[in-house]
Amino acid sequence: MAITDSLGIAEARSQLGTLVARAVHGHQPTTISRSTTERAVLISEDDYKALLRARHELEVSRVSDAIAAHGRGEREMMTYDSKEAFYADLGLPVPGEHS
């Protein structure tokens, strides 16, 4: 999935119907910029759900790998003071935070 367009928020607003149709029917994402640091990507709900599934599968895989490594004696049992520390140890972004 390659990002095909990058539009300012005003231009995106004026073309929103077309952009949504392209995202839904053509799976063509569009980057929408409010400023140089505030950007979002418009994608279809199906593509969004696929990204969430892929992230979940990655998380499950990393946790399973850590459990297996512990079972083989390659990793110590860890206790974490926070959710952020747990995710950082597994090399994963914390859900809901910028990744």
TrEMBL record:
It comes from the Bacteria. SUPFAM superfamilies: YefM-like. Gene3D superfamilies: YefM-like domain. InterPro entries: Antitoxin_Phd/YefM (IPR006442), YefM-like_sf (IPR036165). Coiled coil: none annotated. Pfam families: PhdYeFM_antitox. Belongs to the phD/YefM antitoxin family. Antitoxin component of a type II toxin-antitoxin (TA) system. This is Antitoxin. The lineage of its organism: Bacteria, Bacillati, Actinomycetota, Actinomycetes, Streptosporangiales.
